[in-house]
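Subject: for your reference before the review

Hello V.,

The reviewers asked for a structural picture of the protein, and I figured it would be easier to keep everything in one thread rather than splitting it across files. Below is the amino acid sequence we used in the manuscript, unchanged from the supplementary table.
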Amino acid sequence: MAESSDSLHARTLESTRDNTASSTTFPEADELRRRLTQRQLTMLAIGGAIGVGLFLGSGVTIRLAGPGVIVTYLMGALIAMIVAYSLAEMAVVQPVAGSFGVYAQTYLSPWAGFAIRATYAMGQIIAIGAEVTAVAIYFAFWFPTVPQWLWVVSVSLGLVAVNTLQVGRFGEFEYWFALIKVVAIVVFIVLGLALVAGLGPAPAIGLSNLTAHGGFFPFGWKGVWLALTLAITSYMGVEVIAVTAGEAQNPAESIPRAMRTIVFRLVIFYVLAIAIMLAMTPWNQTGSDLTGSPFVRALSIARVPFAAGIMNVVVITAALSSANTNLYLTTRMLFSLSRGRLAPPWIGHLSKNGVPRRALAVSTAGMIAAILLAIYAPSRAFLMLYGVAVAGMFFVWIVILVTHIAFRRALGPERVAQLPMRLRFYPYSSALGIAVLLGIAASTFYVDGLRYTVPAFAPFLVLISLAYWIIRRKAQSTPDRTAEADVNSGPAKE
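And here is what came back from the structure prediction:
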């Protein structure tokens, strides 16, 4: 008889218990609640992935690659799929709130577990600032004279309020929030296909725009590759399903289903939406700056009545949904660090409705940074925030793939064969993902706005390593009255 995922989880923990840090013991009532359904999980992942990377950042990738950016997003989808399937395997065995942070701690080292969680939390905090800044940029489409910082403050307050809700209600709110942009993208694709094919009163646009302005690869394969430095970040959100595992109902079933669904949908949404937008309007007229969405510009150029305004509502919703999900992710990652005794204990406490509100308060730092940048550097705020988060996410994905290799070795062939979802062509696919991510990180030196992201990340990694050493020294000098394993290493009970 096949071994259950719970049994796999128990046996894996037994074989790697020495690598798992102890934590403060918390009562059952002070644990995260498992109230996220599969449909909410799927929409949370979409909400985290479909945001400014598609609706605003695509303007920069188009500038770098022209129509060849379609190939860029296909390449990004392949790497995202490798990471997603790797995470799904581990999340089924260990459905915990700390997710890949706990996995790295268990299968690599305690330092790796701390470094990836701290990096992810910091990267998401910065990304939240980029998302709310994008919302302010979108509002300028209607209100060009209103100060950017006013929109940033208003949006930030609203998102914090939503994240204080009990997780089931939060999940339902985000489900409908994300559904709006999913429906809008589908409508955009259908409308764009009609315009391209001439299904209506207007003459057919055709596909000439994909080749008429310098060819399909106006900047060659170099442009396609350099555009990947930003395009890959558009997919950085698939890991949300693993992070939500600690609050998911029936994780052994819901996580594999949600992960398969999200990867397929992201490929359709990103690649098809970008291709149709580029067919509708010349790529060199979609705008190469960050003063608005190229999707809104495309509809304006195509002179579709009221469509540009409606699309602007959609991109605002998309940015809000993405920021909302990122705020959730950061809060749970900080909660996990605290419960693993790798952050101050007060951060790990929960409110009566099961929400780590103190971790939520810390997670608002990116919003504060966005407000300050909106006041003092409004024209550069988005790329400054977004660029800083890029290098950290490269590090996170690379560590996830390295952890997955160690995870496979720890489980052994027999238990791997029993997993409900497996990464194909392992270990070659994992090696390909690591190599491509390293290559992309090195390529940021040749992209305006991203040249200093990797050099800026190096001292950050040194600082968090120093912080880890100090925390471990302090923990070792304190009498241990804790449980034998991290409370987050086992399923939380309601």
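For the response letter, the relevant points are probably these. The CA atoms of residues 61 and 172 lie 33 Å apart. The chain has a mean pLDDT of 75.

Happy to draft the paragraph if you're swamped.

O.
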